Amino acid sequence: MLKEKFYSLYGVGTEPRVFAASGRVNIIGEHIDYNGGFVFPAALGLGCFVYARENGKNIMNIAYTVVGKGGVRKSVIDYGSLAMLKKTPYINYQAGVCDMLSKAGVPLTGLDVFYDITVPFGSGLSSSAAIEVATAYMLCKYADEKNRTAYSQDLVTIAKWAQKAENIYVGVNCGIMDQFAAANGRKGKAILLDCATLAFEYVDFDLGGYALVIINTKRPHSLVTSKYNERRAECEQALLQLQKVKPGLKNLCELSPKEFEERKILLYDKIRDRAEHCVYEQARVLRAARAMREGDAVTLGGQLYASHESLKTLYEVSCSELDTIVAFAKSYGCVGARMTGAGFGGSAIAIVPKDCVADFSERLKEEYHEKTGLSCDIYDTWIEDGAREIKFLEED
């Protein structure tokens, strides 16, 4: 049991508090969060659960599990030496959050913490955002109780601090979507988020007779070592070219498909492809959200297939493993499937008839292994709340 594990690490005493933030699945809207577009993510039951107790010191003692790795690892974050931990694996996300909060004036409480992370690393389901948001929310709750502040009540700002931790401290130039979903998710709802303004709307995510299945390729990706930052730079180049004929254009996703078609001659080769994906992906997101409001899983599924094709051919962030899963889903008769997350590995999603999930999963695993030599994981999870304190220990 996790509470007993905490006591074995830090000694029996005051019962630890439990904080959590969720991993996320992006239903549709890939690689357009940093281009000012609309995205459609949802928070997952897979997440980061943090058991915490004050230690009266100026440090955070950290112990953590790494899903699939076994055992418990330990480390220490000294609040007085935060800049020294940028390259330290597994705890640089927490250290980055501490650094951002400290610079924002949030007092840091000394804590003994145990992280139980159930989002598989490298799965494309944003384990990093779950860690960042859970850490930020926990520290903000302690700061509020000690200083009569209200940091923890502003989940949008918490998401921004978590994003800054990844951008500035860790060095991944990600958009806001992952951290926003990890913080602001709501059970049973997807979030239609305008990444340019952070205006958002909750949309019921009810697929009727279908189920959302998440498939991990088991080909891990790393945003730091992948071409993620290269793609972002290419989009920035496209924006600069388009601004020459449309001054005041702030983001690629401000363009309608018609406006893009009238101006795409200004762009060359790959830069044009990247911009085209962004503009049309934005349109697909809005169609998908409308379909969900109307309870139309089939229309949603069509947008997923179109999104994957664009990510594969125009944005070039798919891989053979992801393509194998999507091709199988299409041949099986699923109404929709696509890669989700940044790509270069990670996970895919499929919309599968509820009464076929077991058969779909079994047959997919066989074909995937035959074609790739890898064994994929298929997750039984749900759409969950975002940042929260759990008032009871669920395993008890």
Structure description:
With 396 residues, the chain is an alpha+beta fold. The protein has two domains: 2-203 and 383-390, Ribosomal Protein S5, domain 2 (2-Layer Sandwich), CATH 3.30.230; 205-379, GHMP kinase, C-terminal domain (Alpha-Beta Plaits, 2-Layer Sandwich). Helices cover 40% and strands 21% of the residues. The chain has eleven helices and twelve strands. It has helices spanning 2-10, 92-103, 127-147, 155-170, 177-184, 228-243, 257-263, 269-293, 297-313, 320-332, 357-372, and strands at 17-28, 38-54, 59-64, 73-78, 111-117, 189-194, 200-204, 210-216, 336-340, 347-353, 377-379, 388-390. Strands 1, 2, 3, 4, 5, 6, 7 and 12 form an eight-stranded mixed sheet that branches. A four-stranded antiparallel sheet has the order 9-10-8-11. α2 crosses α4 (155-170). It is globular. The mean pLDDT is 93.
Largest sheet: 8 strands, mixed
Q: Which structural class do you get from the secondary structure elements? A: alpha+beta
Rounded average pLDDT:
93
Share of residues in helices: 40-55%
The number of distinct helices, counting runs of at least 4 residues, comes to 11
Could you tell me the CATH topology label of the largest domain: Ribosomal Protein S5, domain 2
Task: Considering the chains and any ligands shown, give keywords for the structure.
Alpha-Beta Plaits; 2 domains; eight-stranded mixed β-sheet; four-stranded antiparallel β-sheet; alpha+beta; 21% strand; 40% helix; 396 residues; Ribosomal Protein S5, domain 2
